[in-house]
Fold each of these.
Amino acid sequence: MSDRFCKTPEPPYYAVIFTNLLHQEHPGYEAMGQAMFELALQQPGCFGAQSTRDDTGLGITVSYWRDEDSIAAWKAQAKHLVAQKMGMETWYSHYELRVAKVERAYCGPEGREHP
């Protein structure tokens, strides 16, 4: 398996899907984004995250969590609260956040159930 894929446990676990569209000007965003990515990985219950952004500014980050309590603790983390405020006030023209419970996971190319 590639190092670009998060190692997740056997389901069930949770995925937080954060989709956002950056304003054309977004000073400081990359540095804050990298800092938040590294901080999230240090949080209890975080299994990892994957992120991508296209050339129009549309980005999607999916982070994987043990349970809803872990997600709530991350949402309330002090440095993350600062980043959330900056995102809403400065960087994002729109965003959507979804929390999903992962019931099944498959990997491939064979499509076998995730170990």
Amino acid sequence: MRCPFCSHDETQVVETRESDEGDVVRRRRRCLKCDKRFTTYERAEITLPAVAKKDGARVDFDAAKLRASMLLALRKRPVSMEQVDAALERIQERLLASGAREVPSSRLGELVMRELRRLDKVAYVRFASVYRSFEDVDEFRRLIRDI
């Protein structure tokens, strides 16, 4: 680690502590040249896969956009924000567990529909009606019948 004061390349770790949540490591360091001390923070960098759209475009995964879509489907439904956050967490865990660098938007849509189906049937139907772009009423009826 380079010293922020004199730019010397060699520093010594004097003290190491984990945060209460265990997701950040705090290190006190001492420069071996100027003897000044400074603090660094280490955190795991987790990269979610990119999303491959139907038109071929590639975009970064956006949890806020996914959350907004789910909240729109859940509008005026008796589902708590904690339940929505837990569902989003499960979706992100599945994406991370897949190990893929890229996920098709259709797969992401299926994951969202699975979570919405668990949370609220009406929200599931709302999301599916937009996501699946039904061509006729019979397809929509089949979806409702399957629930």
Amino acid sequence: MKKTALVIMAAGLGSRFGGGIKQLAKLGPSGEIIMDYSIYDALDAGFDKIVFIIRKDIEKDFREIIGNRIEKIAKCEYAFQELDKLPEGYTVPDGRTKPWGTAHALIQVRDIIDCPFAVINADDFYGKEGFKLIHDYLVNEMDEDASVYDMCMAGYIVGNTLSDNGTVNRGVCKMGEGDCLKEINETYDIARFPDGSLVGKDVEGKEVRVDGDAIVSMNMFGFPGRFLDTLIENFPAWLSEHGEEMKSEYLLPQEISKLMQDGKATVRVLKDHDKWFGVTYAEDKEAVQKSLKSLVDAGVYPASLY
């Protein structure tokens, strides 16, 4: 059977969580963090290796809170996303503190990925179904050597991904033929109104309605390992165009969209019916704790994962 890896992006600053390291917040009934559940579900689905993308300044806390524990039950490796990890000839503009984005984060794992892999956010609870869907696609369906990149994505129903404590940003998916993704439209400040309608803003700030059954991307993708080479190859051109901007980000969904538009990639959308939840806002913490406890009480997870 093919080997597979799970890459967890955990280098975010957590600015909307009150400035703390939200990826390391203890939310489960036995002190688990959200990553514990993702790793538990990934290993159960059949993934062989866990790769953490973190920052050097949180490495000590990260290893103490989760890394050292997970290393006892699974093969683990680390990659580090830092502002100064740029191609030769490029420098960080004065005053920039914002990370370079999710595609830049993934570049850092190239030396330790030699198999198909899934990627997720550290602070999102995805549920069991997505890990199983993506693992099985990577192992049984993905053509790693296809001339056009063969990718997959767990697609969540937007209504299952909202926060009761504020608006959310989502990549709303437009579907093509054969359950394949046609495009991702970044939609910002999505809110549910009292009548149940969902309204957000497009990239130009124009108000748009969002169908309650729309499929959205939660940054849960499956890729062939060689896809990382394309991210590396395209990064210098992106930096030449955007590198002097203080808040520009080299984002994974945007790079995937460009490849699809150029006919260089296809993305199979694997519809996931689980409810997503996360700690976008500090006020989400209590709701997440209650949700995890209810899943434990229902027998979906043991009271103590490890």
Amino acid sequence: MKSVLHKANTRGHANHGWLDTNHSFSFANYYNSDRMHFGVLRVLNDDTVAPGRGFGTHPHDNMEIISIPLQGDLEHKDSMGNTAVIKEGDVQVMSAGTGVYHSEYNRNKDKEVKFLQIWLFPNRKDVQPRYDQITLERGKMHNQLQQVLSPSAEDEGVWIHQNAWFHMAQLDAGKTVDYALKDATNNGVYAFLLDGDVTIEGQSLNRRDGYGLWDTQHIQIKADSNAKVLLMEVPMKM
């Protein structure tokens, strides 16, 4: 088993007033040659957007973009004609493919919105752009791993053009869960701790720490306190 640890306080950080953001991997003005990506996981941004503010219309292409709200309401509009509001408990995906424009704004004028913005390199280029979102069944996340993303439209959660699976779990203190990789030959797992404290394969993690593991078939997660964790299984080679 190989691993890489990214403690929360080692992430890139920028505060633009309307946007307070932390970058697990090189992004915008943050550059670290040792932290360009984890396999096909290119971007993991932990964003807080001020009331009524947001990202104006901007382009993307050939990227799988996943947004996971953690607090508040995020309004999305895109050039495919989609207008939607996503909030905590939702997962949104956009396959940029041949090219798409979109905007993201904090819908509320009186409170912040917090969300994860995640980019994965696709396994197919120049696909037809597409958009989807789901609302998770919260009970399915309690003390177990709930699948929220996969490569198949027939499987649970949203789907993307990549051999990747995301799972989330809300764990009570003392609970242990195991995760078996879907494709242990080619994939690794990047764990991002949303809240609390856990131990993964002997490594202690705290809130907003990231931990990547590969060359393994399974991992064990033990909650040292009440905790919420996101697991991202992704191909290690692009």
